[in-house]
Amino acid sequence: MCHQQMKTLIFVLWVLGYIAFLLSVRRMWTGKYVRSPLARLVFMNMLSENEAPEIQEWYQCSPERLGESVKSLFIQCHLDSGTSAFLKRSIEKSGWMFTQLYHSFVSAILSPLVSRTSINGFLGRGSMFVFSSEQFQRLLQIHPEWRADRLLDLGAGDGGVTKVMAAHFSEVYVTEISLPMKWNLQRRNYKVLGIDEWHQTGFKYDVISCLNLLDRCDNPLLLLRNIQWSLVPDTGRLILAVVLPFQPYVEVGGKWQRPKEHLRMKGKLWEDQVTELSTEVFWRLGFEVEAVTRLPYLCEGDMYKDYYVLDDAVFVLKVSEEKL
């Protein structure tokens, strides 16, 4: 009995020590990030009224640095109401101290066993944001009432970004590796397909979205070829987002390793890599760029940071006439 009590006491002390450590780390970050209620209020007002300098940089592009064939296809985007709403929710959720402590504790326990994506799916945290409804419509050059038959969202995560697009389609199909994320997608009534069967269904898709997946899959060239074959002829479109600078890694059992197929990217600037993707990778595979823009790839924050942001290039691609 004493031995069991000792084990229980050690566990309780470990939990208390872990919480104390997290709280001390949280205080260390207070000055650098938007932690206090007053600072949060000021920042959220900035989202509503004027773009902060940091946010303005998310959308900046120097068109003169783009290749001649890409320059005229660039669409300038700005912070809009949909993006502001996501940022506000992230800031609010980051301030839920006990929820964030619980999330951090569970993550520490599960991280040696399962992937970060599955942990986020289990906890219902870490939602992503790529574009708003208005930005999606502008990129595809469609109006709010536009409707089509089928959407396929590859690597859909928890379905948060899928929801932005889903209103325009009669049927919504998704793929996802993480089991907890699949459960989330099924609860949203999306049709979950296996990662090896979506291009073998016998029907084609009006729009396929491949958002921030190209740098996280083993065979990106094969993926693009399968997408090309799976689009409705003539009218089918691929909306593809990729984080730049391009740094491909694949998560396997909680560890990161290089993919089997490696896309070599020239240039260091965002504009250089957009041109390289457009004129080399996509063109050689038989895709034509219809539009490209620069958007922030946002993720809900945690107890250390209100939100996380990466630099996205978002393309709209069609199959070139030579491939049809």
From TrEMBL:
Keywords: Membrane, Transmembrane, Transmembrane helix. Pfam families: DREV (PF05219). Gene3D superfamilies: Vaccinia Virus protein VP39 (3.40.50.150). The keyword ATP-binding does not apply. One of its GO terms (molecular function) is protein-L-histidine N-pros-methyltransferase activity. The chain crosses the membrane at residues 6-25. The keyword Membrane applies. It comes from the Eukaryota. This is Methyltransferase-like protein 9. It comes from Takifugu bimaculatus.
